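Hi L.,

You mentioned the student needs an example of a multi-chain input paired with its predicted structure. This one should do, with 260 residues in total across all chains.
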Amino acid sequence: MDAADVVAKSKHCIVFTGAGVSAESGVPTFRGAGGLWERYRPEELATPEAFAKDPELVWRWYRWRQEVVHRAAPNPAHYAIAELEALGVVKAVITQNVDGLHQRAGSRNVVELHGSLWRARCVKCGAVYRLEKPVEEVPPRCPRCGGLLRPDVVWFGEPLPQEAWARAVEHAAEADVVLVAGTSGVVYPAAYIPHIAKKHGAVVVEVNVEESAITPIADFFLRGRAGEVLPRLAEEVKKRLSTRRESSPRGPSAIGSSQP
Ligand code: APR
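Structure written out for the whole complex:
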């Protein structure tokens, strides 16, 4: 039984993604060569204290990240995951990414554990705004109350959005397969998700260019770039599904079948 068999035979397959899935779209990852945390100090840009100290600096960084993503396009990894959902195989995508590329590739059931670059929240009245393009004014102000808007993302030291976390844990507890792609698996509580799935008996299939903190619990480790491995996996799954359908043709349907 290989990874494609396991995924094709799954009853509740979920996908857990990290920045590595967007790397081939030209969106930088956080750790490793060329990662964002190599060039910027997270405590200076991705914490509530940093925002309180200098909201303009933080927004300049987030506007730059919005511009990078706005110019980027989903890559074959995103499309393969969306295809597996359209086939009814993938039930949910639980992502640490804030770039919205899963949704742009057609994934519908996406749980954003770390929020989104494409939402801003008023620190005063709590209003949340969808952003269709990078902000112009930094820091942006709330149209409703004039308060300061902040990126609707989870910063270090902040709790995850309650509803997203609850949905993610529910899927992880129900999953019989969790496909983990492009994450170093070192940032908690998000990184608990594959462990929760494993504890509930799920098979762990990992896709990464190198080993990660998840690899020790992986039942299958598919070494390679997500943009190559995931489309190949999706093709193989499609083949297994059609072979299964051919080998067990449905009997005459009750409605409208002409009994001999
Ligand atoms: N294909 C597959 N995996 C890749 C690719 C690729 N093309 N390129 C990089 N990777 C892998 C790296 O080997 C690494 O394991 O993706 C992972 C990226 O790890 P991180 O940069 O740590 O990103 P992530 O795991 O998503 O970080 C989690 O940390 O800073 C916070 O909030 C931020 O959501 C982020 C969280």
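You could point out the following to them. The radius of gyration is 20 Å. The first helix runs from residue 3 to 8.

Best wishes,
N.
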